Amino acid sequence: MKPFDMNEIVGTCHVLFVCIDSLRYDVAKAEQDRGTTPVLNRYGAWRKCQAPGNFTYPSHQAMFAGFLPVDVGVRDMKQREKLFFSEDIGMGRRAPEGAFSFRGATFVEGLGQVGYETCCIGGLSFFDKRTDIGKVMPSYFKHSYWNPSFGCKVKESAANQIDFAVGKVAEVPQNCLLMMYINISAIHYPNYFYIEGSTRDSVEAHGAALRYVDGELGRLFEAFQNKGDTFVICCSDHGTCYGEDGYWYHGFNHPIVGTVPYKHFILRKSGEQEKVGETK
């Protein structure tokens, strides 16, 4: 079986990019192995990858430009898997085999130029549009949305975000292709309130937050399946520390911060699921 050819995906499938902000690889893998994230587990195992940045803003700028997390075993940049490739960079300005060559500063803008409706459902303050810096990344999309109930300080943030996203998917005409990005904020600090009685963020609360998010994601995936075939990118932008080696949270180059879970897969309208990284 061969890897996805994004030139066959673009123009035929919806595109859904789910970033579970701050999700650590070790926690994601542990919950996967325990079977406590059944929705995410349906779509293959997490790949252990290197994050393109050590906090939300630089990591997203890289990812939107096509530089998604890289498998930890890669030692030659030419061997990294590329889904989207800017026409403005690289040797000879030629996209690697299987990558979709896009125009514009981001692959989001590139998809918009070939007919996609592009939509951002914000989470963290970098997507809230209340400040100049909070307007930068939402500006890459034709439509962008945020409200306080989507923020990381709200225990029900993932349910609120996904309820809103499902409504937006339903509004899209059947003959229209949709590219949606959603910045899931629930894993990000503070997350202590996902453990009853806890007063401090922790690895345990991080895992509980992921289990909560997993319980909400099924509705979003189902909404896209009702629309048609959908290519899904699901990953974290960076990890976060809870006292390891004296470090707390992220924004520095600790191995826990730099190691993230990643997967991509296709949701088939018929409900028939392909294996991760493969096409028929």
Structural summary, described in words:
This protein has 280 residues and is of the alpha/beta class. The protein has 9 helices and 12 strands. The protein has helices at residues 6-9, 25-34, 38-41, 56-64, 107-113, 132-136, 157-171, 203-227, 255-258, and strands spanning 14-20, 47-50, 70-71, 84-86, 100-102, 117-121, 143-145, 178-184, 230-235, 241-242, 248-249, 259-267. Strand 6 (117-121), helix 6 and strand 7 form a beta-alpha-beta unit. It starts with 5 loop residues before the first helix and ends in a 13-residue tail after the last strand.
Shape call: globular
Number of separate strands: 12
Largest sheet: 8 strands, mixed
Tally the helices.
9
Q: Give average pLDDT, whole number.
A: 93
Order of helices and strands: HEHHEHEEEHEHEHEHEEEHE
Unreliable sequence segments:
273-280
Question: Beta-sheet strand percentage?
Answer: 15-25%
- Range of helix content: 25-40%
- Main-sheet strand order equals 3-2-12-9-1-8-6-7
Helix/strand structural class: alpha/beta
Alpha carbon gap, first and last residue: 8 Å
Radius of gyration: 18 Å
Question: How does the SSE layout of this entry go?
Answer:
Elements: H1 6-9, E1 14-20, H2 25-34, H3 38-41, E2 47-50, H4 56-64, E3 70-71, E4 84-86, E5 100-102, H5 107-113, E6 117-121, H6 132-136, E7 143-145, H7 157-171, E8 178-184, H8 203-227, E9 230-235, E10 241-242, E11 248-249, H9 255-258, E12 259-267
Parallel strand pairs: 1-8, 1-9, 4-5, 6-7, 6-8
Antiparallel strand pairs: 2-3, 2-12, 9-12, 10-11
